[in-house]
Amino acid sequence: MGGAERAEPLMERTYVILRRYLNRMPAPAMLEVKEEWPFLFSQRGLFSHFGLLTDVNILQKLQEALGQRGQTILQFCQTLDNPKVREVLASYEPEASEKAACILLLLMVYFKEPTEKLMLEVDTCATAADVVNTAALPSTPCLIIQARFSHLHRDSDAFTVCFLGINPEKGSKAKKRSSINPHVSTLHRKLIDFEWSA
User: Fold this and answer.
1) Per DSSP, what are the bridge partners of residue 103?
2) What is the pLDDT of residues 122-136, one digit of tens each?
3) Is the dihedral of CA 122, 27, 31, 49 positive or negative?
4) What pTM, to 2 d.p., does this model score?
């Protein structure tokens, strides 16, 4: 990944070729994609591709989301009588970089989503080969964490790519407006009520 400065503009110029390659049927195997397009598997490459695909600067989007709703979500969750929520909050340290991980985990607990669908915790000494050969990897993309939650702030950029700006308002991947999931709508209403009462 030492040639990131050269690779990023080349990835932009070959974006259409890459999209055709990724969207072909049958879909290419992940190992094949990694061999053909290795820069796509770097953090910088993933952020760059995501920006081209969605017209969203994901790091900026994370900062905006944390600034607009992050603290409200944390404070709202502190009022909940839920042991799993309390467990996540007990592991949280109020650093901005760790806040993203905490909020994501709180939302997953709130919506009763199993964290193993998004995160797979492995031994801190495990290599990539160990994980591929021994871990029960889910069929969907996930984060492989080699540390306890209290150290997740080091990987907060990894959380960024998982939950922000997936359905942008503009760009080629923008969806037509549809109804919001009722559970999300309910949480949104509760957060607004919480802000008003605070």
Assistant:
1) none
2) 777 777 777 777 656
3) negative
4) 0.59
